[in-house]
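[step 3/7] fold_predict: job queued, chain A
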Amino acid sequence: MRVYLLSHVLKEDDPVYPGTTPLRLEQVRSISRGDTSNSWRMSMGNHVGTHVDAPNHFDDTGLKVEDLRVEDLVIESGLVVEVPKAPGGSIEVEDLRAHESRIERCGMLMIRTGLQAYRWGYPSLYSGEGVSLHPDAASYVAAFSNLKALGIDAVSISSPLRRELGRAAHRRLLVSRRFLIVEDMDLAGKPISYDYVILAPLRAEKIDGAPCTVFGIKLD
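[step 4/7] structure written:
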């Protein structure tokens, strides 16, 4: 069995979607200062780094992170599709239709736009322009009954340049559905198919989404 990490390590200088509170760390106990142990205080918005959007993110009656079951988080058959986009680009139905025969056989679809290359070198483009999933493309994805989740290597499926379109895409995937969106994934240089994808979000009560560690599993 081979295991791949498909999520980023949380860092204080991570690029985040505009308006999101970034990670802040404060060491409150330190062995080097004479304390008996190390301890830290963390503060952040719940949509930082690689994170999962539960249906409650855009559906007030939808599932929250605490409501997710094991079968929502352990997904059989993960697929990465190549949809190259420049900052500010839009993922259209035609981009996905080219992969339709493979999408029909997977449980989680992950879109590799290549925008991850801008995450550290040009973070203002990564977080400030991003890419969009067009609402029609979101409806196309939602029509696949086999899909349980959608992932992307961009800060969001909503470009800050086209927020209304991004909100519409979120609603089409999340409202009145048992479906998850995983944003800001680490897909660069990773395999394109997995036997299982395991999502491990921070499970806290009340919240609509959470930072998430993602494992891609390939069985030998």
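[step 5/7] annotate
The first helix runs from residue 70 to 73.
The first strand starts at residue 2 and ends at 5.
exit 0
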